[in-house]
């Protein structure tokens, strides 16, 4: 179901009495969606521990100070890393394992992270969740001999292939790790500075104005992200009971497989299930769960060799 912003705000405010502590890792948390998700989470959890990962140390330092000002009871740390480099990702994961015994939330709004390195920490948490902010609901048919788009490339494929492969990989992970909840999300049109940076000041401003009627603010996006990160509407496969989500109008959501509370959810930012059930069924029937998973592991092995 799609939730309203008032329902989301009500749930988020209730976290003050529900969650005393929470350990979260935000990859891409120095700007835009990840940044405002971290800020809002720090405001509604009494004693949060938040790690921010990004390349811009100056921006990271500013956000850490902002988090401290908003909630001095929390612990905040910026870790400089280029998540497009798997060697940096490996070092980051090792560093986190030294510092923490568990990880409640892995929030990916930039790049990718070697999930296997974080399994132990996630499974040690009470209700762990992994969120990828990318293209949930934008999945397309894919070709098994062109997963890296080196044979045939198009702009639409560069959007659809990563979305599809993320959803397939997360479905595999949800079956392998039933104590962890997985979400692949489409964040909507968020009014971040990215347009001005990518298109230039004048053109970016014009496009931003044209998109304003269908966009949401960074602050509102932060509300939605905290809800997706903490709501019982999206439980892990192994923890979905009949009364797991009955408070405050919250209902358990249907997973990508069609199973209610199935562990992996393809969502719009407002919590609406946007799974293309027929497409996902076709991809499963053609063996793409195994094909994409093997391709992913082979890619990591090749780069890290």
Automatic annotation (TrEMBL):
The keyword Metal-binding does not apply. InterPro entries: NAD(P)-bd_dom_sf, SDR_fam, Sec_Metab_Biosynth_Oxidored. Gene3D superfamilies: NAD(P)-binding Rossmann-like Domain. Keywords: Oxidoreductase. It comes from the Eukaryota. One of its GO terms (molecular function) is oxidoreductase activity. The keyword Oxidoreductase applies. Transmembrane segments: none annotated. This is NAD(P)-binding protein.
């Amino acid at each position: 179901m799609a939730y309203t912003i008032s329902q989301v705000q009500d749930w988020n405010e209730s976290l003050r009495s529900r969650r005393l502590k929470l350990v979260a890792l935000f990859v891409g948390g120095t700007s835009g969606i990840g940044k405002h998700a971290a800020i809002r989470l720090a405001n509604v959890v009494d004693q949060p521990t938040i790690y921010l990962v990004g390349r811009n140390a100056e921006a990271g330092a500013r956000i850490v100070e902002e988090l401290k000002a908003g909630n001095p009871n929390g612990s905040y740390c910026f870790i400089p890393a280029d998540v497009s480099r798997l060697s940096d990702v490996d070092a980051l994961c090792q560093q986190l394992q030294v510092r923490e015994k568990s990880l409640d939330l892995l929030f990916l709004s930039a790049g990718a992270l070697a999930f296997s390195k974080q399994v132990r920490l996630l499974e040690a948490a009470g209700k762990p969740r992994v969120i990828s902010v990318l293209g949930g609901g934008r999945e397309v048919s894919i070709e098994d001999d062109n997963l890296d788009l080196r044979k045939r490339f198009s702009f639409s494929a560069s959007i659809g292939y990563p979305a599809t492969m993320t959803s397939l990989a997360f479905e595999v992970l949800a079956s392998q790790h039933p104590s962890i909840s997985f979400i692949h999300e489409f964040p909507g049109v968020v009014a971040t500075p990215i347009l001005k940076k990518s298109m230039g000041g004048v053109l970016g401003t014009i496009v931003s104005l044209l998109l304003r009627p269908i966009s949401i603010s960074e602050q509102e996006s932060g509300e939605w992200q905290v809800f997706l990160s903490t709501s019982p509407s999206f439980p892990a496969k192994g923890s979905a009971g009949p009364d797991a989500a009955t408070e405050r109008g919250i209902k358990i959501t249907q997973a990508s497989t069609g199973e209610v509370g199935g562990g992996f959810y393809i969502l719009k930012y407002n919590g609406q299930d946007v799974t293309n059930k027929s497409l996902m069924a076709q991809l499963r029937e053609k063996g793409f769960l195994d094909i994409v998973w093997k391709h992913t592991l082979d890619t990591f092995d090749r780069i890290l060799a």
